[in-house]
Design brief:
By secondary structure, the chain is α+β, with helices and mostly antiparallel strands. The chain has two domains: 34 residues, no CATH class; 144 residues, tt1808, chain A, CATH 3.90.1570. It has four helices and 14 strands. The strands form three sheets. It has a six-stranded mixed β-sheet, sandwiched between helices. Strands 4-7-9-10-11-12 form a six-stranded mixed β-sheet, with helices on both faces. Strand 10 and strand 11 form a beta hairpin. The longest helix has 17 residues. It is globular, with a radius of gyration of 16 Å.
Length: 189
């Protein structure tokens, strides 16, 4: 993860993003290139999308990495690992490829992005009016943290091995151990 360019307009960011296969975020003029995920990281993302797809309420969809989320209030465009949208995805007026109405966002923590995901991204995502929960999932051990909107405040809930992710925004519960498993029953340490 690192800055690619500074002091770019949003139009310049869109042109740069269109010219590369890299995943780029926009931070109020600064373009940041995201690191390609590890196997473990990508596997957890796949598990989350699969599990959420099986259990999400009608009209909601879990979308994997690559979908841009626009935070209009702070002029940021971020790329979460998993984005849950209920109803129609509302698109940014600046960027037809970015949505502005996620209900739940998941980030799988990587050694190079852990601090960024738990600090900068958390503070940005909380500015999205539709967001109900922000979930971070460790990739090197069984642990997740849920940041949940409760009225005008945000509450935190940690979930350890054997625990359950209670996603109130969807009315869904996922066994945390299932997030780390696969269809063959192989468990990631």
């Amino acid at each position: 993860m690192g800055a690619v360019a500074e002091q770019l307009s949003y139009e310049q960011y869109l042109a740069l993003a269109a010219a590369t296969d890299d995943v780029l975020e926009y931070h109020d003029g600064v373009v940041v290139s995201m690191v390609a995920p590890s196997y473990e990281h990508a596997r957890i993302v796949g598990q989350l999308v699969r599990l959420l797809g099986r259990s999400s309420k009608q009209g909601c969809v879990a979308l994997p990495s690559g979908l841009k989320v626009r935070i209009e209030a702070t002029n940021r465009t971020l790329v979460p690992d998993v984005t849950v949208v209920c109803g129609a995805g509302q698109r940014s007026q600046l960027d037809n490829q970015a949505i502005v109405n996620p209900v739940i966002i998941f980030e799988v923590l990587s050694p190079s992005t852990e601090a960024y995901d738990q600090d900068t991204k958390l503070h940005q995502y909380r500015r999205i009016p539709s967001l109900r929960e922000y979930v971070t999932v460790a990739q090197d051990h069984r642990f997740a943290s849920i940041c949940r909107r409760v009225g005008d405040l945000w509450a935190f809930e940690d979930v350890e091995a054997g625990g359950v992710l209670r996603l109130e925004g969807l009315g869904v519960e996922l066994a945390l151990d299932d997030v780390y498993g696969d269809e063959l029953g192989v468990i990631v340490p």
